[in-house]
Design brief:
The complex is a heterodimer of chains A (168) and B (126).
Chain A lengths: L18 E5 L6 H16 L2 H20 L9 E7 L3 E8 L3 H14 L4 H14 L8 H9 L2 E6 L5 E8 L1
Antiparallel strand pairs in A: 1-2, 2-3, 3-5, 4-5
Chain B lengths: L14 E6 L3 E8 L5 H17 L4 E12 L1 H16 L6 E7 L3 H13 L4 E6 L1
Parallel strand pairs in B: 2-3, 3-4, 4-5
Antiparallel strand pairs in B: 1-2
Helix pairs in contact in B: 1-2
Classes of the chains: A alpha+beta (168), B alpha/beta (126).
């Protein structure tokens, strides 16, 4: 991908991401941040397809982060969007309650044993077979519909960082 | 009287819902609430029950105007397809009318189709 000199991406070597936000883990913010992400990706990269993928990644990662955040003053979320001109990376850092961490780790490991489409189908089958359980479609959806790979890094102070990386 | 068209439509902030006799429901807007089942699970279940009672051969669910939904909402469509698939009395075809231009519809209804292809039909509109 060729980057015009006046494109926001021409700042890719700067020591900061294209987008960085820090905010309280409140559900009410998610719609606005998702739609900002859509606008940002559409404007910066000029493709509707990437804008749609960004929406899925942002909606589902932020929902998970908000839903499972610990109820403490240091539980603010951090969102960053970065690009090197060939790939895009969405990263969400949060402070989850301890009970959620194991199930998140297990879910991530589980979906990564399958290719994205198969993992999404498997999540549908599980949801169908377990009508009383929570949906647990989100992570598989991010990989398949978002066209990204997911990773989780455990950071100091109990924080975790979910990173979604895909091609532009 | 058609039980299907008499199903009470829930009020939900970001969704417009229209039920039309004898067998059509149309949803448009976005579904991103924390728990959309609170607004919609009972409604979809009522539509399913009414479709069985009315012995409809097909229910046409037009979701082409649903521009974005979260995975909790997608789960509601999985549930509806599962009810039809597991129905022991009268079974009908659940036809989803989807848009080619809306990304989540392309990926999710493809997955849904492979889950319950014997009772689902997908129709694409632009």
């Amino acid at each position: 991908m060729e980057i015009a000199e006046n494109s926001p991406l021409s700042r890719k070597l700067a020591p900061y991401p294209l987008v960085f936000m820090r905010f309280r883990p409140a559900w009410a913010y998610i719609d606005g941040i998702r739609e900002f992400g859509r606008f940002f990706c559409q404007t910066t990269f000029g493709t509707q397809e990437l804008a749609d993928r960004a929406c899925v990644v942002l909606q589902e990662t932020l929902e998970n982060a908000v839903k499972y955040s610990s109820n403490t003053p240091d539980s603010e979320l951090e969102l960053s969007i970065e690009s090197d001109g060939a790939n895009i990376e969405f990263s969400v850092s949060s402070l989850p309650d301890a009970a959620h961490l194991d199930s998140l780790r297990e879910e991530l490991n589980g979906i990564q044993t399958l290719d994205p489409e198969q993992a999404y189908l498997a999540a549908f089958i599980r949801a169908s077979n377990e009508p009383e359980a929570s949906a647990r479609l989100g992570l598989a959806r991010i990989r398949y519909e978002g066209g990204v790979e997911l990773s989780m890094k455990e950071e100091t102070g109990g924080r975790i960082r979910i990173t979604a990386t895909g091609k532009l | 009287m058609s039980q299907f068209s008499a199903v009470q439509v829930p009020k939900a902030e970001t969704i417009a819902i229209q039920v039309t006799a004898p067998n059509q429901v149309k949803l448009s807007g976005t579904i991103t609430q924390k728990d959309p089942a609170n607004d919609l699970a009972g409604f979809f279940k009522a539509l399913h029950t009414a479709a069985v009672s009315d012995r409809l051969s097909e229910v046409r669910a037009d979701v082409s105007g649903l521009t974005f939904v979260n995975s909790s909402a997608i789960r509601l469509f999985v549930d509806w397809a599962t009810w039809v698939k597991n129905e022991r009395g009268h079974r009908y075809t659940l036809r989803f009318v989807t848009s080619r231009n809306v990304t989540w519809q392309k990926t999710s209804f493809m997955a849904l189709m492979s889950l319950a292809k014997e009772v689902l039909a997908i129709e694409h509109v632009t």
